[in-house]
Amino acid sequence: MVKNKKNLIKMLAVMSGLSGFIILAYVFFPLISYDINSKKFTSYLSPIPDEKVFVQQSYDNTKASNWFPDGAPSVDFSTSNVGYYNISIPKLKIDTAVVSIGGEDLSKSLIQYPGTALPGKDGNAVIFGHSILPQFYNPKDYLAMFSMLPTLETGDDISVSYDGVIYKYKVDNKVEVSPTDLQVLEQDVSDSFLTLVTCVPPGHPLMPRRLIIRARLVPFGGQANAAIGN
Fold it and tell me: What is the pLDDT of residues 36-47, one digit of tens each?
């Protein structure tokens, strides 16, 4: 009887240890896999920043103003003229997600970075979106909405509905930068660009890098591809 109890205890201990290992693997495998894969594609995932980047001790990644410490302060987000438009990314099953112009709470919407161009205009419209572990991806949850952004590739479609007009973009570049690199937020008025930004690796506790997806407005009939929305 005593021997059977000891065997049962050992079995439960082994099962408990195995369960713990499976849980750890479930959490950390996507992070490790992302880092391995990102280093394979340095031709378009570059520059790879130094891992030793600035991290705020009181870091709250649901606040857009925390993502680039040397960028726009919180007050710039909150004092922007409030407005909204919608973005769709078919590959990620994101359909008419709300982008807020003004405010910085990434749990409630995607956020346009203050002072960047409006969709369809010459310049660079920059949109921030939150990410979590990819296995919990939900294209309708703003806390998870950009978790699969790293899977976008050159040529993928993005559409933006702004002020009754639908603008079509195609992805043409993907890079990673550190939170101290503000060049990705600068305005290039040579064309109309859309820049999507999230923290990577998705689900990383500190999320030390920023993934930048740059898309360009698609020409149509010699003019910007804009169609009146229904």
Answer: 555 544 434 444
